[in-house]
Amino acid sequence: MKPTEINFHKISRVLELSFEDGLNFKFTAEFLRVHSPSAEVKGHGPGQETLQLGKHDVNIANIEPIGHYAIKIHFDDGHDTGLFSWTYLHDLGQNYETKWQQYLDLLDEAGHKHPSLS
């Protein structure tokens, strides 16, 4: 599943993707940063994930195409590892609400409140 359109809205910090199946997803830069497929975030196996803190103001500095299968997102906090494949982005889009709530729950369990909930 490949995107038919990719738009980054710098002021709102939202990456918008339209896919071949007609689905359209909007991702905040923060959401993409805390769900980066990199080893720094995901670890090297189950249970090795690192909770990302203080990413509510992060923005996307650059988006680099990687072949015909992915993009590399350069965030303005210096993070630029991890390739966001079309499949991964499509899955993130389909599960956005659940994944966002899981992240907020993990923040809460770790004793951190997201600024939007303060």
- Tell me the CATH topology: NE0471 N-terminal domain-like
> How many structural domains in the coordinates?
1
Give the termini separation: 38 Å
Total number of helices: 4
Shape: globular
Strand runs, count: 6
The CATH class label is: Alpha Beta
Radius of gyration: 14 Å
Biggest β-sheet: strands ordered side by side in the sheet: 1-2-3
Structural class determined from secondary elements: alpha+beta
| Low-pLDDT runs | none
Query: Helical residue percent?
Result: 25-40%
Please write the string of helix (H) and strand (E) elements. Answer: EEEHHEEEHH
Strand content: 25-35%
CATH architect. name: 2-Layer Sandwich
Mean pLDDT level: 93
- Major sheet: size, sense and barrel closure? 3 strands, antiparallel
